[in-house]
Amino acid sequence: MQQRSEGNHALREGVLAWYSLHQRGLPWRATQDPYAILVSEVMLQQTQVSRVIPKYDEFLGRFPDLSSLAAAPTGEVIRAWSPLGYNRRAVRLQGAARQVMAEHGGKLPRGVEALRRLRGVGPYTASAVACFAFGQQVAVVDTNVRRVLGRALLGETRPPPQQVDRLAAEALPLGRAADWNQALMDIGATVCAVRQPRCQQCPVQPSCWWAANGQSQAALVVDARALAERRAAYRTQPPFKGSSRYYRGRIVERLRRREGNRGVPLAELGMAIKEGFAPQDTPWLETLLQGLEQDGLVRRDGERVRLP
DNA sequence: AAGCCGGGGGT
DNA sequence: ACCCCAGGCTT
User: Fold this and answer.
1) What is the CA A109 to C1' C4 distance in angstroms?
2) Rounded distance in angstroms from the CA atom of residue A119 to the C1' atom of nucleotide C8
3) Residues A15-61: pLDDT tens digits?
4) Domains of chain A by start residue, with CATH
């Protein structure tokens, strides 16, 4: 059994009370279906809630369960994923569905360790599904939670992840894990923002180290330096448009507009995604396609390129 | 440890 | 126009 800390009692009560009043009404909190919850958690990897909401019901309508997702052509899954981005997630999500069909009799495993072995499921997603779908009493730690607990218990906005994992496990109110984890994420998203935190409205504030120290002079200096470093890095970066990442997106986008399922000839694809595409650009395009093929996002078929 | 992977949206 | 966002996998 994990260690408990009496000092966290007030913190727990305050957070849970706040959550009962201020929780966000999110579609994936209104379902008990483990598959639907898995879909939401994968969509929420690197993607804001506001962008997932309009896509969520549509995707579930198209792929209502694990077996329909597993059985679909991968290209259809990639189409249904637009415009969420990070398209590899769509391929991996289907891979996970196929794993579950093949290895788990079509039922998602309930434990963190088994979930963790599914394609595209890392520490965050595994604990999120275990907790929200199966009621496992485990901590769910994303960057929001890391920031909230880091500030409250350590006085640091960007604390060492391992240290936070330990604190999160200690702070977990057994029996209320799901509400607690969702509450911390809501607080991180709506109150304990990276900049301009609204400490006056924060249920953690009474026991928050960071707020108590006037949001710590040292922390502000560190944050300011980090901000300056990010700005410098941004300036020296080439613009997104024209990056290989940009053109990868254009290729997938072009292939999504089907043509039956016949795909697009290589040269035509080049012209479709890049103005002034010339024969000498072919090796560049080939390189992009090889990467996309490796990720399972594209299939080469002689001269033609299509979704898998 | 570091780099890759897309988009939309706030300011 | 600039800047932010933040999990999983590969190398």
Assistant:
1) 35
2) 9
3) 999 999 999 999 999 999 999 999 999 999 999 999 999 999 999 99
4) 31-134 (1.10.340.30), 141-236 (1.10.1670.10), 244-306 (1.10.10.10)
Whose CA is nearest the C1' atom of nucleotide B8?
Answer: A51
Give tens-digit pLDDT for A54-105.
Answer: 999 999 999 999 999 999 999 999 999 999 999 999 999 999 999 999 999 9
A143: CB within 7 A of chain C nucleic strand: yes
Give me chain A's average pLDDT, please.
Answer: 90
Tokens of A289: 């396609």
Q: How far is the CA of A121 from the C1' of C8 (A)?
A: 7
Position of tokens 């962008």?
A51
> From CA A181, how far away is CA A244, in angstroms rounded?
37
The DSSP H or E segment spanning A272 is helix A266-273
A300 sits in which H/E element? strand A299-301
